[in-house]
Amino acid sequence: MTVARPFSGLRYNTEKVELSNVIVPPYDVIAADERETYFSRDPHNAIRFELTRHVADEAAADYADVGKTLVSWRASGVLIRDSDPRYYVMRQRFTAPTGGELERVGFFAELALEDYSDGIVRPHERTLDGPKADRLKVLRASRANLSSVFLLYQDREQELESVFARALETDVVAEAEDDAGVHHTLAILADPDDVETVQSFMSRLPTVIADGHHRYETALAYRDEKRASATLPNPTAPYESTLAYFANAYAPGSLLLPIHRVVKKLACAVPPDDGRWREGLPGWKHRTVAMEGARSIDELLEAHLAPLAGRPAFAADDGSGNLRIIFREEELGNRLVVRVIEEDVLKTVFGLDQLAIREGAVSYPKSAARAAEEVRTGDGRVALYLNPLSADDVFRVTGRNELMPQKSTFFYPKVPTGLVFRDHQP
Asked: Same structural domain for residues 269 and 418?
């Protein structure tokens, strides 16, 4: 199954840089107006490996400067390569969106690339050609994996937990804190017995891509290019693998957060009234609770929507001061709540088909508070709040070789760029 090998990583020299000043979020969650912040923060900030300084420059960029920067920073000692292959254990300590301190522990490895048809590395969402073409330019120019694919594996019994704990007790090599307040600790896992334990465990399992579908498919495209130009097959060539971060989907700190829906004003002239809700959703139960502005939404959802997890259920907010809780007295079974929302709510109540949704009738805020604000001060008409999917949902759907609806889940915390790189050059 999954081939996750130790590798000789390329890392920032913490005697030359402050690691907290050079790590960045994944490229696809950095807003256009945030780019300058990272470029200005430190001359060695890792955003230089990911994005152009200005969005307008992106289309014409060939990213040749990325390759030159990589070579320059290695030569100057800003980046140093570890001598022997090892795994890199990362612990992330953070405050959950609903409060409370959590930690997630996973590891970086060299992932052997597999076609999706083999069922070993499994996707959960579709990709777009534009971002893949852009990432392919970066990979060609750098000949390095500069940000990682994030994958989930199943370890319900926490078999690898003690292995990672030993590394974090004895071999920490770097620490950093990001702008979201997540504290990252990086440790080396090089003990031969522990390496064998991890490698053997992973070899028995398929994995699911949580984040980084575009990066993974870009790596496949680059592999195919290099294979086509190679004289002979070379299974150990650097292009046959990519950089990946693995986390146990069933560990307490592996959060799968909901991505809420906001129906925009352009698609909904007036919010549905009580009669429209009941006409569009016959057989559903309705109750209303008072809502005192956007700041109260998380507490209200925890009290009134979270207990309905496992059922078809959602909360609707039109900014009127009342939060409508709508649900059915039945189990979801093998259905996903996001699919129910698309078919029963967006289509039936709002009259929105897939084309309208793709063309922008619905937005997808990453938090309930943002969704509530969008309704009150932005272009949102009605916010639809959902319960999160479970790890079981993800593995069940991908195990059937199916994809989830657009924007089904948000994996938190994100895996930063800058803790470890994988250079294809020796």
From this structure: no
* Residue 21 resides in a domain: yes
**12 lies in the same domain as 141:** yes
Question: Which residue segment(s) compose the domain that 354 sits in?
Answer: 260-385
Give alpha helix (H) positions in 112-191: 129-142, 161-170
Residues 6+ apart with CB under 8 A from 143: 67, 238, 423, 424, 425
Q: Supply φ then ψ for residue 307, to 5 degrees.
A: -65, -15
Distances, alpha carbon 86 to alpha carbons 138, 185, 395, in Å: 25, 16, 28
Q: Among all chains, which residue has been given the structure tokens 């002979």?
A: 232
Q: How many CA atoms lie within 13 A of 288 on its CB side?
A: 11
Let me know if residue 405 belongs to a domain.
no
User: Measured between alpha carbons, how far is 12 from 80 in angstroms, rounded to an integer?
Assistant: 6
Indicate the DSSP class of residue 141: H
In this structure, is residue 403 part of a structural domain? no
Is residue 401 one of the residues assigned to a domain?
no
- The reply to whether 242 and 266 lie within a common domain is no
- The reply to whether 360 and 294 lie within a common domain is yes
Encode pLDDT of 190-204 as tens digits: 999 999 999 999 999
Residue type, 262: V
**Are residues 244 and 277 part of one domain?**
no
Distance CA 335, CA 386 (A): 14
- Reading the block at residue 247, the tokens are 């986390």
Model pLDDT for residues 286-338, shown as the tens digit of each residue:
999 999 888 899 999 999 999 999 999 999 999 999 999 999 999 999 999 99
* Helix (H) or strand (E) run with residue 300 in it: helix 297-304
167 and 56 within one domain: yes
* pLDDT (0 to 100) of residue 366: 77
pLDDT of 98: 74
382 DSSP β-pair partners? 263
d(CA 142, CA 218): 13
Q: Are residues 182 and 273 in the same domain?
A: no
CB 151 within 8 A of CB 245: yes
What is the reported pLDDT for 128? 87
What is the model's pLDDT at position 358?
86
How many domains is the chain partitioned into structurally? 2
179 and 318 fall within a common domain? no
Per-10-residue mean pLDDT for the chain, 426 residues long? 97 98 95 95 98 95 97 98 97 89 97 97 93 97 98 97 97 97 98 98 97 97 97 96 98 93 96 96 96 91 96 97 96 93 96 92 91 95 96 95 89 96 95
